[in-house]
Amino acid sequence: MRLLLKGGRVVDPRNGLDETKDVLVDDGRVLTVDSGIEAEGARVLDVREKTVLPGLIDIHVHLREPGREDEETIETGTLAAARGGFAAVACMPNTDPPLDTGAAVRFVLSRARETGRVRVLPVGAITRGLAGAELAEIGELRRAGAVGISDDGRPVTNSRVMRHAMEYASMFGMPVISHAEDVHLAEGGAMNEGYWSTRLGLPGIPAAAEESMVARDIFLAELTGARLHIAHVSTAGSCELIRRAKERGIRVTCEATPHHFTLTDEAVAGYDTNTKVNPPLRAARDVEALLQGLADGTIDAIASDHAPHTTEEKEVEYELAAFGMIGLETSLALAITELVRPGLLTLEQLVERMAYGPASILGLDWPGIAPGAEANITVVDPDASFVVDPTGFASLSRNTPFGGRRLFGRVVATIVAGRLAYEACEAAV
Amino acid sequence: MPMRHKDLLGLEYLERDEIELVLDTAVPMKEIFTRDIRKLPTLRGKTMVNLFYEPSTRTRTSFELAGKWMSADVTNIATSTSSVAKGESLKDTARTLEALGANFVVIRHQMAGAPHLVARTVKASVVNAGDGRHEHPTQALLDLFTIRERLGRIEGLKVAIVGDILHSRVARSNIWGLAKLGAHVTVCGPRTLIPPDVSRMGAEVTCDLREALADADVVNVLRLQLERQKKGLFPSIREYSDLYGITRERVEKCKPGVLILHPGPANLGVEITEEVAESPNAAVHQQVTNGVACRMAVLYLLSGGGRPGEVVA
Q: Looking at the predicted structure, is the pLDDT value of residue A49 above 90?
């Protein structure tokens, strides 16, 4: 199938593009990027006034299949991804059963081939059963197609196990993705520890619970020379530790979520359980630090930590509610609204944080909008606004605190390997 | 002037004039104690449900009497004997109470925000009888009422709240109420039991009991949950008592006429000695009596009472 994107502003810093160009896609690949392309028989998308970007990647999502298909499936999660402008997602291994065997990883990839809308990149477990004790068969996970390893949702508490995981994973060039949390400091906590936890009477999780583990993992990365990726960085202290580590040449990368760089713990007032997330929404100074980190490149990637939960798991007492919120369908718009429009990030920097940065963390070949490259393209209208309506989400779950918010940045089309994975109705001509 | 909200979830959400209205309304309510027949027709035909997820004697009984003396039909749900034991969610329980026609739901729950969830679910007025470490608004109202009754005012007084501030809903409600009525509040306890940034709620903080007591007009002594020691929050009951126990010797160094409050039930000999709790300075039993009057006032005002020209009793 031939596809012609006509008249859009193509922004792709790694291919030196920021100009109005047509993009012709043929047989899954970018054929030409030029002005005034005419292509007989091609499906034409009028993308004038729209912005054409390299396909975005969300490196931290929970697709819940296998095990919790009532919360999300690979089909619905990848449809949500496509609607959110993502051409690829990395899914975390805390499914049931967890992705701690080659068979489990192959299952996810085969379901993705059958039902997925976008590319699925499975992350394997660090330890068997995510139990934090014995290493999973990391070589086998790699052979099956895992792009990294993580016990996400749980930290690897035992420092010796984490050390060996890093050493072992480095043989395969895989990043170790750390969910940095001191479980003893965080125990029983429901929100960030600070003024708002005091005021609301909810048990707090101090910033030090994250920072002490970030520090440990940085030292282990230095010791082992392995590639360390810190998931969902949420505090000013973590940002500073990672900035220093990068200056010292340690191979560490990190990601931040849109909820952590747009909301503070004050959002918990009213006890809306959709604000309950781990790590928790932090204080204003932490949000400031994340914005700074995103601007100066300390934070390499924006990832949603899309964590679907049923209404039943959320409509309970705050302390009993499940941690997590969904983000695939709001992530890009939040980044455009809160980062690009206020001038904190240029569109080029946004592409770095949402496409190239994520690709390089996972070691993906992601050549962008260049002739011959696999055609993974996101088309967005950064000036079009919409009101977030969770009832209209493709995701099976509704747990977002952003319902009712007006955001800028409507996704017009998502192209995955040359196929239209999603297109907004009015784009077709 | 009636209350501005359907529910009483915390003093955090009330304006100063609303708090004063409750205290003023509680004055005639208290007169009922002196009567032979303790019955007002105010809430006749209304149904009040006490939904208690935590054990409680004085608060539950106090609400029950407040409802009954105003002729409401009162029923108590203790969660160990209800369908909650079968795994019914709080939201479902709330809907059931609504279907049963409850006009008031009085809820005590071990988790902060539980009354808010119920209030969002039902049309009935929800009264928070203590949610986790968040608030216990009627306890603070009765404390304010008692202070005003004993000392004649609240504005300008120095009030020390002593003990486990971190886990205390009584402390939080008292801080809001006292600060809104113009008192100076100091919280005092071991550093491990002081929540972060509590000063932003309007209280001064000290870990030194002598400093807290020095010029206090009122000392509100909190109950110590003895099991906190196992969590490593303080080394021993003995050391706690030594550093923070309110004893006769310590009271004697306070201002003469210092008022000692305790929300009960007290661990006598731990946070307060029996000698102090039963001394003329203490108002422990008066607090219990005032609790019924304040809860009557709350129920009356939430049911729409308190409009200009209305006679209370």
A: yes
Topology at the third CATH level for domain B137-287: Rossmann fold (3.40.50)
Q: What would you report as the CA-atom Rg of chain B, rounded to the nearest whole angstrom?
A: 19
Quick one: which H or E segment has residue B300? helix B284-302
What is the per-residue pLDDT across A246-280, written as a single tens digit (0 to 9) for each? 999 999 999 999 999 999 999 999 999 999 999 99
Whether A36 and chain B come into contact, CB under 8 Å, resolves to: no
Residues of B within 8 A of A192 (CB-CB) are none
The CATH-assigned architecture of domain B11-136+289-302 is 3-Layer(aba) Sandwich (3.40)
- Interface pTM, i.e. ipTM: 0.94
- At B305, phi and psi to the nearest 5? -70, 165
CA distance A421 to B285: 71
Q: Do A195 and B197 touch (CB under 8 A)?
A: yes
Structure confidence at residue B109 as a pLDDT band (50, 70, 90): very high
Question: From CA A420, how far away is CA A263, in angstroms rounded?
Answer: 33
Decide if B197 and A201 are in contact by the 8 Å CB cutoff: no
Superfamily of domain A55-361: Metal-dependent hydrolases (3.20.20.140)
Asked if B227 is an interface residue toward chain A (Cβ–Cβ < 8 A), one would say no
Identify the band that residue A428 occupies on the pLDDT scale cut at 50, 70 and 90: very low
Query: What are the residue boundaries of the structural domains of chain B, listed by start?
Result: 11-136+289-302, 137-287
CB contact under 8 A, A316 and B200: no
Q: What is the pTM of this model?
A: 0.95
* Token pair listed for A183: 């479980």
Q: Which two tokens stand for residue A38?
A: 């005419």
- Tokens describing residue A413: 């089309």
* DSSP annotation of A336: I
Under a CB-based contact definition with an 8 Å cutoff, are residues B60 and B129 in contact? Answer: yes
Separation CA B165–CA A310 (nearest Å): 35
Please give the structure tokens belonging to residue B266. Answer: 């007290």
Sign of CA dihedral B26, B27, B28, B34: positive
* Chain A interface, best mutation among B111, B135, B201, B230, by max A CB count within 10 A: B111
Q: What's the average model confidence in pLDDT over A84-89? A: 98
Please give the structure tokens belonging to residue B98. Answer: 């609504």
A2-52+372-427 adopts what CATH topology? Urease, subunit C; domain 1 (2.30.40)
Model confidence pLDDT, tens digit, residues A62-81: 999 999 999 999 999 999 99
- Judged by DSSP in three states, A77 sits in helix
E strand or H helix that includes residue A334? helix A331-335
